[in-house]
UniProtKB/TrEMBL annotation:
Gene Ontology biological process terms, A to Z: ribosome disassembly; translation
Keyword line: GTP-binding, Nucleotide-binding, Protein biosynthesis
Domain Tr-type G: 1-167
Protein name, entry field: Tr-type G domain-containing protein
Species, as recorded: marine sediment metagenome
InterPro entries tied to this protein: P-loop_NTPase (IPR027417), Small_GTP-bd (IPR005225), T_Tr_GTP-bd_dom (IPR000795)
Gene Ontology MF term list: GTP binding; GTPase activity
Amino acid sequence: EQERGITITCAATTTFWKYQNNDYKINIIDTPGHVDFTVEVERSLRVLDGAVAIFCAVGGVEPQSETVWRQADKYNVPRIAFVNKMDRVGADYYSVVSQIKDKLKSVAVPIQIPMGSEDSFKGVIDLIDNKAVIWYDDETMGTNYNLVEIPEDLKEEAELGFFGVVV
């Protein structure tokens, strides 16, 4: 798996989340993203309550992502999309959001937009709470952050992102 950079079997784990005095059990299934495992992914989709589709900020919506998305449509699996690898050379968040709309024929409604990309990626703007999340310690891989007002030079982009004009 590590050599090829792909998941080759389904992996499952359980975690618990406490929210407003309620305990929730969350079962996470990581499915293979390779075409050879389409049947295994389809089996997993039959039992899911929801899915998180992860798209690379460089590669965008790839053919196998389209296949899995159609499978999720078939089983009416609600999903959210997450764009990762914003720190990579060639990262383009807005291109990925456009691809979600165009290739997957889905309504993409951003709830966060990135602050910068590639070497200048430093955080995200939370469009729900209207705040900026800025990471300040590269060693902790995003676990240390400050929640601050949206910087003046990004307020217009945040407003456009919220209303879906720029995406």
